[in-house]
Prior knowledge:
elongated
Amino acid sequence: MEDLILSIPIQDKALVETLAQRMGWTMRNRRTSVERFIRSAKGRSQGENSCPKTPQMTDEEIQAEINAVRQGL
């Protein structure tokens, strides 16, 4: 299987959903994909692909890092 992202006019959504159902494809919209990612991140330990439960840097420290990279410091 390969994941594809399609942008289609809203009026064609029902047609594409019907086609996907008949072909046995799985179809998700952007919102459900993001919600699924968040749910899966909550259930995992703090591994490489999960969201940390407590941030290790403050917003100010993050902004300082971004500014340093932008300014080449």
